[in-house]
Specification:
Length: 115
């Protein structure tokens, strides 16, 4: 497997994961819909986020289980990190990577709006 390197639209946030994910998550909850999120799940230990601390903007909503991060400069929603959610999983917006690396992967639809 080859590692994937992605970035937000302006390039201020760089993301590296060790390989393509096994599947892509499409969720219909309000947060995923309104942020244009298409997810992939990772153990936080293997994800590298490179960004100046002041470029990342955090958003915590509702059940406060996760923190959603976006780039202050270009607005791209790049990743989320767990708060009260299980600490061994974080999300990366697969759209930060070139589509050639992920558009062929299986899509798992999650009915987050009705959980
Ligand atoms: Zn950016």
């Amino acid at each position: 497997m080859v590692e994937l390197k992605g970035q937000c639209h302006c390039g201020a946030v760089q993301i590296t994961v060790p390989s393509p994910p096994e599947e892509i998550i499409q969720c219909n909850c309000s947060l995923c819909r309104k942020s244009g999120w298409t997810g992939s799940f990772w153990n936080p230990d293997v994800v590298e986020i490179q960004a100046e601390p002041e470029i990342l903007n955090s958003y915590v909503q509702g059940d406060k289980m996760i923190t959603l991060w976006n780039c202050k400069r270009c607005g791209s929603h790049t990743h989320w990190t767990p708060r009260t959610a299980p600490p061994d999983r974080m999300g990366v917006n697969i759209k930060m990577f070139d589509a050639g690396h992920w558009r062929h992967l299986p899509v798992r639809k999650v009915d987050g709006a009705n959980l």
